[in-house]
Amino acid sequence: MISYIKKNQRSVKLALLATVLGLVPITLSAQSFKLSNGEGKLMVTGTSSLHDWEEVAEQKSGTLQVDVTGELPKITTLKFTVEAESLKSGKGAMDKNTYKALNTDSHKQIVFQLSSIKEISPVTSSSNKYKVVANGNLTIAGKTNKIELPFDLTVNGDKAILEGKKGLKMTDYGVEPPKALMGTIKTGDEIEIHYNTIWKK
């Protein structure tokens, strides 16, 4: 009876050990990256009745977690944040109008938070590049909308690259397109976000 109990105890311990060891590769396979603020570029472009315009985000941050052990990578975490008043056009008056439209006194950040991955497929010309469509929540000027965010993801060792573009309407976020010179210059409602971002371990 005693030998039977000891044998069962050994079996339980071995089963637990196998379970723990089996989980180790899963834990180690999840790679975490941080958005590199000093590299890459995130830019907003748009139109006006006078000329096209662009603003570059000078302060951005984020986290990305990818499991690359399977046939296709699994993106478990994706969040990036832009400090609203770090959007710079090179024209002080335009920047001031932008911050007023975004109500940056109350809403300091623009944030995207992943909720799920809709699609992911390999780019045939590259072994470590994938086309992705992510579902998530985008918050601008305090209003949050669900969006689909398309991008190409490249994972190469200790670095990941996320690049693409997304069209939006300012009015969808309660933002009135800025005006200048007593309303004689009007900004178009449609904008486009261009992102070519570098993420590092």
Automatic annotation (TrEMBL):
<dbReference type="InterPro" id="IPR036761">
    <property type="entry name" value="TTHA0802/YceI-like_sf"/>
</dbReference>
<feature type="domain" description="Lipid/polyisoprenoid-binding YceI-like">
    <location>
        <begin position="32"/>
        <end position="200"/>
    </location>
</feature>
<dbReference type="Pfam" id="PF04264">
    <property type="entry name" value="YceI"/>
</dbReference>
<protein>
    <submittedName>
        <fullName>YceI family protein</fullName>
    </submittedName>
</protein>
<dbReference type="InterPro" id="IPR007372">
    <property type="entry name" value="Lipid/polyisoprenoid-bd_YceI"/>
</dbReference>
